[in-house]
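Internal tracking record. Fields below are filled automatically when a chain is submitted to the structure queue. Please do not edit lines marked as system-generated. If the sequence contains nonstandard residues, flag them in the REMARKS field before resubmitting.
Queue: standard
Priority: normal
Entity type: single polypeptide chain
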Amino acid sequence: MPRPLNEPVVREILTALMPAWGPHEVRRIEYLTGGYTNRNYRVEVQDQAYVLRVVEGTAPRHCERDYLALDVAPDVVAYDPSRGHLLTRWIPGQVLADSPPSPAEAGEYLADLHARIPLGLNRYDFDREITGMFRRASRLDPAVQACFEATAWRPATWRGCHNDLNPWNVIRVEGEESSTRFRTLDWESAGDNDPLFDLVGLCVGLGWGMEHARACHDAYQRGGTGIASETRLRDTFRAFLIREYAWAVAQLAIGNDRDEIRAQVATSRDALADWF
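SYSTEM-GENERATED OUTPUT FOLLOWS
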C-alpha cells in the first residue's frame, strides 16, 4: 500500500486548488487507505469534510471532468485538469463492499446510472486497452494471453459506462431519496462501452457468479435495455477478468508493486480458468 505524502506536500496541493483557504482553516488531514493508483485524503476545513485525490502518474483523460459533473458523481469543489488532483465533498455513507446490494437492487442501480451517463464523450476501446496493458507488462501468463486472443469480445450495444465499477467505487448515501441513494466514484476510465461490462464488473467485485449476475441483469433489463444470452454474459465475464489481470500486471511493471495488486494478478488469472 502506498505511503501517504508528507503533510506539507498535501497542503501545497490544497493551496493550489483552494487558494482562499488559509493554513489555519485546514484543521485535519487524514490519509485514506484503499486507493490502488492515487493517494486519497480526508480533509476537514471548519465544519466541512472533503476528499482530496492526489495523482502521481498520468493525469486522467480530459473528459473526466464531464463525467464528474453528473449528479451521480461526487460534488466537485476544485479540479486541476493538468495534473488530475481533485477535491470533492465528503459523502456520508457506506461503500457497497461493506453494504452489499441484492442482485435486484444492483440491477436497478446500474439501469439508473447508465440512463444518466451521456453517450459520445469518450469511447472505451477494450482491444486497445488490453493490448496496451499487455505491452507494458514485463511478464504475461500465456494462458491469459491465449484467452484474450480467443475471446474476441466486442460491445454488442453502446452506452455511456463507468468501466471500473467495483463495490469500493459506489457509496450508499445516508438519508438520500431513492433516486440519488448511490454516488459513484473514480471516473477516470469512463466512456462508451457495452453496459454488460459494468454489470459484470460489479458482480465480480461482489463475488457473484452466473446465478446472481442473471438476477442482476433481469432487474437491469426491466429498465428498457436488451436481454443478454447466457453465452454473452459468460463472454463478458471472461473479458472483464482479462482486463483485471492486464491492468494488474501493467501496474506491477511500472513499479506499483503492492500486495493487493499481486493478489489481483493471481485471483483474476485463477478466476479466468473457471471461465475457459
